[in-house]
Amino acid sequence: MAVLKPALEQIAEDIDASFDALLAVAGDPRDRLIEAMRYAAIGGGKRLRPLLLTATAGMFGVDRASAVRAGTALEAVHVYSLIHDDLPCMDNDATRHGKPTVHIAYDEATAVLAGDGLHVFAFEVLSDPAMSGDPFVRIELVRTLAMASGANGMAGGQMMDIAAETASFDLPTVTRLQQLKTGALLAAGVEMGAILGRVPPEGRTHLRGYARDIGLAFQIADDLLDTEGDEAVAGKALRKDAERGKETFVSLLGVERAREQAKMLVEQAVQHLASYGPEADVLRAVARFIVERDH
Amino acid sequence: MAVLKPALEQIAEDIDASFDALLAVAGDPRDRLIEAMRYAAIGGGKRLRPLLLTATAGMFGVDRASAVRAGTALEAVHVYSLIHDDLPCMDNDATRHGKPTVHIAYDEATAVLAGDGLHVFAFEVLSDPAMSGDPFVRIELVRTLAMASGANGMAGGQMMDIAAETASFDLPTVTRLQQLKTGALLAAGVEMGAILGRVPPEGRTHLRGYARDIGLAFQIADDLLDTEGDEAVAGKALRKDAERGKETFVSLLGVERAREQAKMLVEQAVQHLASYGPEADVLRAVARFIVERDH
Q1: Which residue has the higher pLDDT, A36 or A292?
Q2: Of B142, B151, B160, which is closest to A127 when you measure between CB atoms?
Q3: Considering CB atoms only, which of A120, A123, A145 is closest to B155?
Q4: What is the DSSP letter of B87?
Q5: What is the ipTM of this complex?
Q6: Which of A157, A143, A122 is nearest to B28 (CA)?
Q7: Of the residues A261, B6, B8, B167, which has the maximum number of CB atoms within 10 A of its CB?
C-alpha cells in the first residue's frame, strides 16, 4: 500500500483544487447554484474514479494536469448522481461525506439544479479545447463518459435499483444492475485514462478486464460495508438495502461467500495487469484498497 | 407563413421518429426509465429548437438526417429541463403539452432519472460517430450544447428564476435571466445548424444576432401568453408568474410596451438575415411565428 496513500492524498488535493478553479462564482443571482455545486463537489469522497483515471493515464505518460482535468469531469458526474440519489424522492438521505446533503443544506429545487449543473459541467470541461488540443481525444472522452452515465450505464442501473425495491432479483440481474450503476463509471475512469494515453482500443483489453473486475469487487465491498460497516466512519446512512428488502450480493451469497468473491475478483483484476510493470502499481494498489477500505 | 406550416409539421414528425428510433426499449428493468423518457420526449411541443437548427442547417446544404439527429439531441435537453422544472420541488406542474407531467404519470424518482437520462442522451447522440464523420464537428456540437445548458446558460437562468421569486429584479436583470434560461438554448439551435453547415465562427455574426433577438422576443411572447393566454390552448398552467410575484417583461413594461418590444425584436431579427436570400425564409417565418403563436 506504499504507493496508495500518497496517490489518494494527491488526487484528493488535485480534484478539490480543480473544482475550485473551474467552478468560479459569477457574482450574480446564479451564485446560489454555483455555491451548491461547489458545496457538493469540493472536500468529500475518496476520488476513486479520478484516481483510476490519473493512474491509468500516468502509465502512458499523460501530463498530470490533463488527467486531473478529465478526472474532474468524471467526478462531477459521480457527484451529480449522489446529489440526485440523496433527494427525498430517491434515497432521502440527510448525510453525505459526513455533512448535510445538498437538499438539506440548501433546498430541493437547488439540489435538482446543482445536480443538473454538475452533470453538464462535465461535458463543458471535456469539450473545452483546454482539455486536449486534439478534437478526437475530446470527443472520445465525451462519448465514453456519456455512454457510461446514461440509460446503458449509471442511469439505467439506478432505474434497476428502484425496481429492485419491489422485485426480487437473482444474482445475474443484481450483477448486471451493479455493473451499470457503479461499474460503468469506474470503468470509464480507466478508459478515459487510456484515451488520454492514446492507447488504441485493441490495446485496452486487459485494462477493461481490470476495470470490470474491480467494479464488481467495489460493489460487493459496498454491500459488505452496508451490512457490517460503521455509519460514523462511512459518513452516510447504512443498512438501507436490508430495510428496503433489496437483494444485494450479501443477501444472495451470504457474508462469507461475498467476501471470498470480492477477493477473487481483486486477484483476477491484478492478473489482468500482468503484462505491465511497476507503472501499474497504483492500479494494483487501488484494486486491493477497494475491498479493504472501511468507508 | 406559407413556408412555416409544412416546416412545423415536418419537424414534429421527424423529431418524433428520431426519438422513437434512438430511445429503444431494453427489454429489462430499465424499461420503466426508457418508457418515461419516451413519454416525455415523443408527441409534444412545437419543436422550435430543432426547427431553428434544421432551418439554419438547410441554408448551408446540410443533409436533413444529420440536422434532425442534432436537433433531437437539442430537444432532449429542452425536454429534460421541462421534466425537472415540473417537479413538485420546482414549479409543481401537473400538466405539460396537455397530458400529465412525468412525475404524475410515473413518480418523482422516475421523473428525476428520466430527466437525467435525456440530459446525457443528448451527449450520447452528439458524440456518436453516426452524428458526423468529422470529430471536430461532433465536439463543436457538444461544446455548444453544453455551454448553452449549463451554469452559464439554461441552468444558470433557472437558478436566477428561483431567485426571482424572492428578489425584485429590474429590466436588465430579467433580460439577462431570460437570455440564459430560454435564449441560450434557442440560440444553440441556430449555432448548431451553422456548425453542421461548416460556417466559420466569423461568418455567424448575423445568425447570432438573429438568434439573440428571437430569444428575447420568444420570452416576451411567453410572458404575454402567461398573462393573456388560454390554458386549454397552451396545454399547461398559466398565470403562475403573477401568483409568485415574479417580475416579467409584462410586469415591468406593461402589456402594450411588451408587445411593441417583441414586434421590434422580430423586425430586428429579420433584418439580421438581410444578406441571405429565400434560403432564410423559414428562419424569417419562425421569427414572426414566435410572437404570433397562441401556445
Answers
A1: A36
A2: B142
A3: A120
A4: S
A5: 0.94
A6: A157
A7: B8
C-alpha cell at A10: 494527491
Q: Indicate the pLDDT class of residue A186, thresholds 50, 70 and 90.
A: very high
Q: In the prediction, which pLDDT does B136 show?
A: 97
- Phi then psi for residue B266, to 5 deg, are -65, -45
State pLDDT tens for residues A4-56.
999 999 999 999 999 999 998 988 888 999 999 999 999 988 999 999 999 99
Tell me which residue has cell 423529431: B15
What does the alpha-carbon distance between residue B60 and residue B51 come to, in Å, rounded to a whole number?
A: 15
Cell matching residue B80: 429534460
A206-257 confidence digits (pLDDT tens): 999 999 999 999 999 989 988 887 776 667 776 677 677 788 898 899 999 9
Nearest-CA residue of chain A relative to B24? Answer: A151
pLDDT (tens digit, 9 = 90+) per residue, B59-87? 999 999 999 999 999 999 999 999 999 99
**Which of chain B's residues have a Cβ under 8 Å away from the Cβ of A120?**
119, 146, 149-150, 155
**CATH architecture of the domain covering B4-292:** Orthogonal Bundle (1.10)
By Cβ distance, the residue of B139, B150, B173 closest to A138 is B139
CB pairs under 8 A between A and B: 167
Task: With beta carbons under 8 A apart, name residues in chain A contacting B126.
Answer: 142
Name the 3-class secondary structure at B100.
strand
Residues of A in contact with B127 (CB under 8 A): 139, 142-143, 146
Q: What is the C-alpha to C-alpha distance for residues A232 and A218, in angstroms, rounded to an integer?
A: 20
Amino acid sitting at position B246:
K
Cα-based torsion angle of the residue sequence A49, A54, A60, A63 in order, rounded to the nearest 10 degrees = 150
Strand segments (E) across A178-290: none
How many Å separate Cα B51 from the centre of its chain? 10
Round to whole Å and give the CA distance between B8 and A112. 32
Residues B158, A113: C-beta atoms closer than 8 Å = yes
Q: Which of B38, B77, B106, B123 to mutate to test the interface with A (most CBs of A within 10 A)?
A: B123
The residue ranges of every structural domain in chain B are 4-292
Question: B142 and A139: CB-CB below 8 Å?
Answer: yes
N- to C-terminal Cα separation, chain A? 17
| Rounded Cα–Cα distance for residues A208 and B29 (Å) | 25
Q: Identify which of A107, A120, A177 has the shortest CB distance to residue B146.
A: A120
The residue whose grid cell reads 408587445 is: B259
For the cut 60, the answer to whether the pLDDT of residue A1 exceeds it is no
